[in-house]
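Request: Could I get any protein with tokenized structure?
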Amino acid sequence: MKIAYWDTAQGNPPRLFGQIKGTPTIKFVVPSKKNKRTSNKKKSISAYNGERKAAEMVSYAKNMMPNHIVKIKDPKKIKDTFFDKADKYALPKVLLFTKAKTTQAVTKALSTEFRRRALIATVKLSKVNIDLVKQYKVNTKENNVLMVVPDEGEPIVMTKKFSMKNCKKFLDEHALKKPYFEDEAAMAKIAARDGAEKAEL
């Protein structure tokens, strides 16, 4: 998240933020879901009306973060909900096995940072997902295990501490360098697949 300060003594803020009745006023600006895939021009603005204490504001900010994570709730449907979706856009596949009860801020940030460059899914380390845990040889002593699942070969597991800095560096090595619709190799895969499907029809 980025934090900006506007001094109202120097002039009114842009109309986008609406009417400012008093200071300090805290507004949250997030990209609108109505944006086209190539643009984040449209914004959704909301005012913070909670307590002006650090803990409360941080909690609210984390809740407001965009979230593009795929949650694997049924391990039997992982192919449809995750693998097929990733293949549809020729995206690298990233799995995060976690003990966290809710989506972590780091995970949300990664989903935005690598949106349309990789598809990230979370799998809770629980009895329900024990088959997936065994399949991917997950170390259940860890709170978070981040891995890239290639189309062939063994998963590539991040060995460093789970943090935004380390996760970003790790995923930068495996994600597309550009959004899939600007990546020539990704678009070539999509075109080849679509061509093969049409040929079968």
Residues 146 and 158 are 6 Å apart (CA to CA). The first strand starts at residue 27 and ends at 31. Residues 70-181 form a domain with the Glutaredoxin fold (CATH 3.40.30.10).
